[in-house]
Give the backbone structure.
Amino acid sequence: MAIRELLGSIIALIGSLFLFLGALGIVRMPDLYNRMQTGTKSTTLGTILTLLGIGIYRLEWLPQMLILIAFILATNPVSSHTLARAAHFTGIPLTRKTVADKLAEEEHRPIPVEEEEEVV
Amino acid sequence: MAEFIIHLATFIVLFGVILASVRFIKGPTAADRTVALDVLTIISTALIVLIALFVNRVIYLDVALVYAILSFIGVIAVARFIEGGL
Amino acid sequence: MIAWFIGVLGIAMIVGALAAVHLKQTVPAIIAAGIVSLFASVLYLLLAAPDVAMTEAAIGAGLSTVIFLYAVYKTRSGESEK
């Protein structure tokens, strides 16, 4: 009994750490696309771990937590993909440390890199 | 012990809310603010589940379910608007 | 614990409302209005009103943002035709 509650709370703590790191990453990252990456992947994993930990902590809530995890896994990458597509097609510049942009090479466009004077 | 760890996790998630709000204030373009909105909706889903754990009611999980379904419609609408279509 | 929730979410909600008033461009102001209704939904939940919170999440955060953006899109397309 106590071991199960301790295990669930520790999983929820790890998930909340991932949520905090995702929110720290969208402040610290130099570029829109890097912010979007850390703001989607890390927070998806953090939410899944938090909900799973609470489902283990309170075992009769576990089916609803699994439904919530399924909805988050379905909806979260869709919104991130739509946002990344919109940002790339409106020409928001990449950071200067970028080494490859396969979509711009495929369409024979120059890689949109941000200006020189903005020091990261 | 387990309740203390849950409280610690809640404080860490609340710090995440503050940091995402900082990016929303700073963001130079509209797409940056949309990323902050996306992160805030996901963090709010986790916060609603934590509130349901604290006040010990099952009915609050339905609110989190509605939120997880409906919140991404706003992000998709803003992204399509930035792209030009809608 | 509930007091910490109300403090942090209320301060973030006030910041979002000030941003919605003071931002110059249209789309960030609409996003700020969406963030205000997002935190309002969580605060309604904290004040033990789950039905009001569900309605606020459906209408405030989802529907009103889409309607605002649709109105802005229609007015801009009308201006570009002239």
Q: What stands out?
A: Chain A has one domain: 2-106.
